[in-house]
Design goal:
The complex is a heterodimer of chains A (108) and B (117). Chain A has strands spanning 5-7, 10-14, 19-24, 31-38, 42-50, 55-58, 61-66, 71-76, 85-91, 97-98, 102-107. The model of chain A has no long low-confidence stretch (mean pLDDT 91). Helices cover 0% and strands 57% of the residues of chain A. In chain A, the strands form two sheets. In chain A, strands 2, 4, 5, 9, 10 and 11 form a six-stranded mixed beta sheet that branches. Chain A has a five-stranded antiparallel beta sheet with strand order 1-3-8-7-6, with no helix packed on it. By secondary structure, chain A is mostly beta strands. In chain A, 38% of the residues are buried. Chain B is an all-beta fold and 117 residues long. Helices cover 0% and strands 47% of the residues of chain B. In chain B, strands 2, 4, 5, 6, 9, 10 and 11 form a seven-stranded mixed beta sheet that branches. A four-stranded antiparallel beta sheet of chain B has the order 1-3-8-7, with no helix packed on it. In chain B, strand 5 and strand 6 form a beta hairpin. The chains are: A mainly beta (108), B mainly beta (117).
Chain lengths: 108, 117
Amino acid sequence: SQQGEEDPQALSIQEGENATMNCSYKTSINNLQWYRQNSGRGLVHLILIRSNEREKHSGRLRVTLDTSKKSSSLLITASRAADTASYFCATGGSRLTFGEGTQLTVNP
Amino acid sequence: GAGVSQSPRYKVAKRGQDVALRCDPISGHVSLFWYQQALGQGPEFLTYFQNEAQLDKSGLPSDRFFAERPEGSVSTLKIQRTQQEDSAVYLCASSLVQIPLSSYEQYFGPGTRLTVT
């Protein structure tokens, strides 16, 4: 069963625009991770944010975490066509529980 | 360096056949995970090894699914008497550290796409 839900399920934007994806989860967590999946490179870890952090940056990625609302968001700034992929949030320790993902399409 | 590799990349099996899927984790990685990903869904946990010990197999959907990692390195996921609902991508991941309650980055392989006809 899926731990959380991502929204939107699909997002289509133009190159250069920002993309925001949201994730909600159900149980208390120690941390939350975001992964990207495309057909070329499989599932790749993007960023991990711990439960005592509210915001984290990595390059063009910005992740926020609101444990009171059990939600997280992933912002990709200045998007590129190469960012086209599915994005998943995941929670858990030894067993990651993934959401259903957001399919992002960045049009050149 | 080499990442996680899986073989075969694609497998077509007739219903009732047994299949074996192989995972070669990153050298030295202690933890190894198997996930099942149905089309359009996120991966779902199947089982977890720490070295050769299978610490969690609660995600295996039935007793037709069996995983092993006898020498603490390569792992094999075996599915007996395959059924159509077993069609999915099977992902293997490895992690450097032992994982108690905290979570560390998992490195995923490209997956094996299993189609049961």
